[in-house]
Known about the structure:
28% of the residues lie in helices and 21% in strands. It is α+β, with helices and mostly antiparallel strands.
Amino acid sequence: MSDRITRRQWLDRAGGFAAGAGLGALVGPGVRTAAAQGQPKRGGVIRAATVDKPVNMDPGYAQLYSSLQVYQNVYNKMVYVDESGQFVPGLARSWKQESDKTWLFDLVDNAVFHNGEPLTSKDVVFTFTRLLDAKNKLPMRVFFSPLEGVEASGTHQVRFHLSRPFGPLLAVMSSATEIVNENALKEKDPKLFPIGTGPYKFVEWVKDDHITLERWDKYHRAGRPYLDRVIFYAPADDTVRLTGLQTGRFTWIQTVPPQRIPELEKARDIKSSPGRPYFPFFFMLNASKPPLNDKRVRQAIAWALDRTEIVKLVYFGSHVVTAEPTPEPSVWGTGVNAHKSGPDLARAKQLLGEAGVGGGLTLTYLVKSQVPVLVKTGEILREQLKKVGITLEVQPMESGQYFESLVGKKYDVAGAWWSVTVDPDMFYNPLQHSASAWNFTGFKSEEADRRLDAFRYTASPVARKKMYPELVRWFQEEGSLIIFSNEIQRYWTKPNVNGVVPLPSLELRFEDVWIA
């Protein structure tokens, strides 16, 4: 087996290839930079405005995308994914699958942690031993359930041992589990002071204001990174971010008011990256308690939902309407929608009547106040559900409180997104498996677990591709997760910023970004 497994090869074995257009080069290790005028230059500062505030910097306790956006520039992973879906080297310079249950990875020999310690195989072993130890209760453990252990077979070589074949192994490694250093974790709280081998080292975190990273001069990729510093801010409003970009306070922002996208695409003082639908938006329905523990009530909401109206009124073409987490042009796109003929208000009312709730049902809608489009989404959903006799109370709250409410199942409906969809196993398994710490809906089903396990533990790409559409349909018909759109991920910068293109993993990696 070759050291690199490309998505094209994966699809050739699966029987087809869905070509995508409009992608530039990725921002990430081991690959080419985006096309730009002139040669990359060293120096300068990026002031980046993201959508939400980070909550901690420990990759083992990754909770929110807002945290990953920062610390994925401080740490490195073993494997990365580029814009075409090809798995490329990170801290692993090459790899091969020795058997269905064994993988061998050769590490780079020049990576250095920000505390001065050289990277060796012991760091990889420590990272995964820490992750797999149930006593640590690390949420990221759910992504690696088939992994039995990692052994050092040399100073810069490790062998992964699996309990069974694991279809999405490289996809998971390309999206999760940054390599940490044991001494660094003992010296300082990694939730507050991250220390990795990444292109930038942590400098400061001023709560509710900014996080500053500086170039790591001992980075293992020669000549990278180009920038002197990256400073992350998290203003709560799209308009504030856009105004900051226009006035020069920010040089990179994640989103803009959707209704202004056509105008901004023509602006001379702003540049937008290519865009692709990498980012599913969905509703979580708390299936752990009445009334949403009744499938009929969940299905009533699904039948009352008008996805097209939400995308039109809230997202203004910046999203695609979809009922699945990885729509076309993703290689996993199926086009499956169990509620394609909806909205069907009569059917929704019938289901509510059969469930014995009828009219007068009141539900809460949990949403992060820092994401105004999801607040507005809740307001549109409120009007849609009103037509079938459901009252929806929209409750915006701060990120930390929002997350605590999800974990404690203290909500009815919640607006959310998911940032890990290189392989759909990474969406469905953590969010719907009974054993997952990320199962915020409280949905538990032996049949769901059986289907998820079969998809995860099948090594054959052909078999996985064949079973996936039915998996999508089955979860749509259960209805504890209702996907309504997928954001066309794109970034907005000053015209002199180069090398910025979204990745399927949605990482905001700034090591190949440079300022003209």
